[in-house]
Specification:
By secondary structure, this protein is α/β, with parallel strands linked by helices. The chain contains eleven helices and 16 strands.
């Protein structure tokens, strides 16, 4: 009986994804199936890979933070980076050189660890299924598939190229790819004989926290390279490092442009489907909540292993649906049964089967 009820919810979800204007938002949990570490695993691996002198400095900072925040708080790399950035921002910093060395070592290690994907099969299946779903809907004009992500990895880009799907992320050019945010407002069209129509196999990708392949050059220009650049200083890498003050970074290019286009995409959407996003970014959450509460039949569907803390106060809102490992909430009401769509790998398989891909 419960399995039958869960299937009913999945059918409702399928119909919802067939609606006009769906935006997908992927968080770190969506990259775990590709072999990338969780926040806990990332924290452990970074600490393990530090040289002895920097590991000692790391442990000193962690102990001080633990005493300050209490033993009940499980510290992660975001907490450590936040403290390091606070130290570097002070006028007079004891052991400033070692603090800089530790920050550089951690950020370099983060970049290396996030390059070590074991597979992109699930993301490839994901983008292929989305294109198949868009292509089969003949009652409306096709539009680019909009995917936003807080992840730095290159899984979506790699998957699009493997499937020969056109994509843009705000960079333009072939030999020298530079930041041209207007690209995120464009679509590739084909002539049907009577009119120009957007092709259905195209993706607008908004990497709101930056990317492994983005960096700045000596003249301050923002660039993207086909290969992940090596030997970058932390300030050259265009990535919003995980720390409590990351909202301030969103005020500067290219991140302010990306937030603007994310908000614009939401304004045209009726459904926001999130997978693996923990709702830990207030600058995104505020835009999402404002959009959802505006009404007009808008629907937020969260797929997550557990109910994100930030969503808990809204769990009875009629615009919210949540699919977790242990429960289903649909339009603010608890439903019987369970579904495995909270897991991105399972979600991509389900999309493929439901899209006829």
């Amino acid at each position: 009986m419960k399995a039958h009820l869960a299937q009913q919810v999945e059918r409702r979800f399928q119909r919802r994804l067939d609606e006009r204007g769906v935006v997908y938002l992927l968080g770190a949990g969506a990259s775990v199936c590709a072999g990338l570490p969780t926040m806990h695993d990332l924290t452990v691996k970074i600490h393990r890979g530090l040289p002895p002198d920097l590991k000692e400095h790391y442990d000193t900072i962690r102990s001080a933070l633990q005493n300050q925040l209490g033993e009940g708080r499980c510290l992660n790399i975001e907490d450590i980076l936040s403290e390091l950035l606070l130290e570097l921002a002070r006028q007079s910093v004891p052991q400033e050189h070692r603090t800089t060395e530790l920050f550089t070592a951690i950020t370099s290690r983060v970049r290396r660890l996030l390059q070590s994907t074991s597979t992109f099969d699930h993301h490839r299946r994901f983008v292929k299924a989305l294109c198949a779903r868009e292509g089969r809907t003949v009652k409306r004009r096709p539009s680019p598939i909009t995917i936003a992500t807080t992840n730095y990895d290159l899984l979506v880009e790699t998957s699009c190229e493997a499937e020969q799907i056109a994509w843009t992320n705000g960079f333009g050019g072939t030999f020298r790819r530079t930041w041209i945010p207007g690209c995120l407002a464009c679509a590739i069209c084909e002539h049907s004989g009577t009119e120009w129509r957007p092709i259905h196999r195209q993706v607008l990708l908004m990497k709101v926290h930056g990317s492994l392949s983005w960096h700045t050059v000596a003249n301050g220009e923002t660039r993207e390279t086909a290969q992940v650049p090596t030997g970058l200083r932390a300030e050259q890498a265009l990535m919003i490092w995980p720390h409590v003050g990351k909202e301030a970074a969103i005020l500067h290019p290219p991140f302010n442009d990306l937030l603007k286009y994310f908000e614009r995409a939401l304004g045209c959407a009726t459904v926001l489907a999130t997978s693996g996003y923990g709702y830990g970014d207030e600058h995104l959450n505020g835009k999402i909540l404002e959009w959802a509460k505006a009404g007009n039949g808008r629907s937020l569907v969260c797929m997550s292993k557990e109910l994100p803390v930030w969503l808990s106060p809204h769990r009875e809102a009629d615009w919210l649906s949540v699919l977790t490992e242990d429960a289903i909430i649909w339009n603010g009401r608890v439903e019987q049964g369970k579904t495995d769509l909270w897991d991105f790998a399972r979600f991509s398989l389900w999309l493929e089967s439901s899209a006829g891909g």
